[in-house]
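Troubleshooting: if your tokenizer reports a length mismatch, compare against these two reference records.
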Amino acid sequence: MGKTLLLEIGTEELPSSFVDAALAALPGLARTKLEALRLTHGNVRALGTPRRLALLVDDVAERQPDLDEEVVGPPETAAYKDGKPTKAAEAFATKLGVPLEQLSVAERAASGKQKAGRYLVGRKQERGRDARELLGKALSEICAEIPFRKSMRWGTGDATFGRPVQWLVALSGAEAVDMSFAGVRSGKSSLGHRFLSSGKIQIEDATSYVDAMRSVHVLVDREERAKTMMERVAAAAKAAGGVHDPEPSLIDENASLVEEPHVVTGSFAKEYLALPAAVIRAVARGHQKYFCVAKANGPEPELLPHYLTVVNTALDPARVAKGNDRVMRARLADAKFFYGEDTRADIEARVEKLQGIVFHNRLGTVREKVTRIEGLATKLAEAIGLAKEQIELVRRAAHICKFDLVSLMVGEFPELQGEMGRSYALSAKEPPEVANAVRDHYRPIGADGPVADDDISACVALADRLDTLAGCFAVGLSPTGAADPFALRRACIAILRTLLDSAKRNPAYASLRLADLFGWAYDGLAGKKLDLSREDAVKKLREFTHERLRGVIAAQTSNAVADAACAGGDLDRPVHVLARAKALHGAVADGRAWLEKARTVAKRLSGISKEAKPVLHGKDAFEKADDHAIVDVIAKVDASTKTLETEAAVTAALAGAEDLAARLDDVFTRTLVNDPSDARTPKRLELLSHGALCMLRIGDFSRLV
């Protein structure tokens, strides 16, 4: 059994994002250092609060094992010249710490980047050292390598850290480890909570660290701190007559802002509840990091005039609440003023005011973009067969979809774009479908957020992103490996997710082709000076989207299935590609035995298809029974794979592919299909090439590994 290793770095208060990043990096840094020192160890834990970062490693070996290993050096040709050792040989001997006479030349097999041949070899021998002799330097290096978004220097030293280092604790079991960093030398003395403890505390043993800190009001384990915090938040919300408003980001941030969480309940005037709930939440969450309190058991929780503050001390909760109430009241008063002014403004006037916001200097203003969205959304609505009344709703929603960008409220709370547009549209008596589209055309928000869930919102959402993609690509702003300032990858994935999810509700989306969508979006840019022609822009956009499509499908199936489905067939209709992928995924998940034959046959057919063009010959072109059987099965598969628009259709086609794979596997085993003495061989190869084409319509079975 080894000893528990403890490192604690005491600092001035770190921002919550710094704490989170450090806790994520510390375990990896510790493992790397200990492995380099040949010190075995057990579990690695990163602990921390705004005032300290800590590392606990269980069962760290007390001593290195002795080292005795063979080391391969330079090739013989580089180590000796005219029978005498070269500088390369001398450098290798120095590296190992042995005389040249102890080196030898030996034959070695290829390994990694090393080619097979004769190499200079030697043995590296090193007596294991006591762990405490090594840990001091390693812990100092860990301190120096913790990543921060911004680091700072202080005093006269050159060391950098997220905030000035105040103290260090380094222990191996109960014994101190001597180390220093940033001009501070380690010891066994730490500090408790800044306000609730008496000051210094001696850490007698690394294993007692967490309990010792808890005794001085520091919950150093972040999970324990978050759990305690939420228990206290829930209790305070219940005491206020409701439940706390769930928000994962608030939990994460508040847990990294305190050492021991205390909850103070604040309140505001009921008159502010007349504001949209999203506004109150934005004031509480975005600026103050407060939890809102809502009535329990409602489908749309109604907010109560209370909020919950997580603080680091509650020595005088009444004073804390009084100060927070004053801030909250001022923020809500501003929001009430903004809301009143915004609701009195004319929507059409706001739409025209978008002329003052430049989307891009080569693509025009946001007002011009809205005009393009309006035309494109209307075309999409017509393409999926919406009724005339719905098309008019789409046109109106597209026309006003960005008007809230020039509102006072969104100017103060940008995260409320769309949400305030919906509220203001409803206030102006716009149809609910239009108001919802103003909010929902921004969906999906984030990688896993829901997409627009009705056709009117979906048409506007697609049009908005299609215009952005087409415009940016047409003026040379396609993403690079290092930059994607217009978030075009995210916009592309949003388009794909909207098409795929909307097709579950309305099958008409399955007929939309990417080439048509991007072409229509490009046409809306008429009059702009563009770098790419329509053909070139559409080609690049399709290639870009096909790459993203593979990732979207892999997330719903598997990497191998996504590769197979995207390697064959038409990729321009994403809904059809997903149908193929899901059917293939089902076959793979069921462990269909014939898939192994399909992989082998697909590889053989792939080679044949490179030599012969695909032609579906009839039976009259052949004489042998085997050839007639191949014609029958390929004709059957050809018919079943011409239209693969649903998962059921692909599943049915897979039955034909199974028959084809079995027949061809048997034929390949028994006969020579590429018989040079058979006059019908060219036509047979053309027939088999057509079989390969039919299988590719479903997917590339050779990739299903």
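Reference record two:
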Amino acid sequence: MSGSLAERLVVATFSERPDLLGRVFDPKIESAVPEFMRHDPVGALYYAGGVLDGYREYGLVAFDPADPDQPVARAFSVPFAFCDGTSGRDELPDGGWDEVIRWAHQDRSAGRRPTLVSALEIMVAPRLQGLGIAQRMLYALRDNARRLGFSQLYAPLRPTEKEKEPLTPFADYVQRRRADGFPCDAWIRTHIRAGAEVVKIAPRSMVVAGTIAEWQAWTGLDFHASGLATVPGALCPIHVSLEQNHAVYVEPNLWLRHRIA
């Protein structure tokens, strides 16, 4: 971990700092991701007001002790039942981020005991990226899952640099290695250095659908033809149909496993 700010940050759960839960959705942090990613409807099963309150022990906020009321990063995770005899839970889902949120929602509704935790996101204010804060939050998520009694932390990881190559097949991209044997993608590399193992690709981890007008509002782009289109921040092209007045983004992620016991 590099950078004095990352080292001096205080990381707390939202049970400890409930007053900061609303503030981590401020544009100063939210602008770290493209607008269209905030319109995956499955996210409401976790992030919607009253629901998120039930996951306060699984959410983390980081702040500088010199300015304790101003969050600079957030991290969210979710507990779920896996390999516990529940039907369809024998392997990690191809649906990745979306599906693990659905599983957690089903578990809470059924009163089912979770056996594992999945990271959902780590987000750092754009002005502070590159200072080691994301790595600090990753280790904090691991520590928090261990504190809560879990032995493994999973993550449907979004490779941060894949957006630079939206046309490159995802499988080819995540297999790339540097001369030292570590992944070329910086965010995958951070996880591997922290001890994570690659499990599988989640080919439809997030699905975002909208009308052409909605996609124009989300991206600031005009769409003049049906077919594949690239948009800033997307890991792969979106599918546009002018005739049907919709566009759909299906994002692949990479399932990773951290053994933390």
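Descriptive notes for reference record two:
- The first strand starts at residue 10 and ends at 13.
- The chain has nine helices and nine strands.
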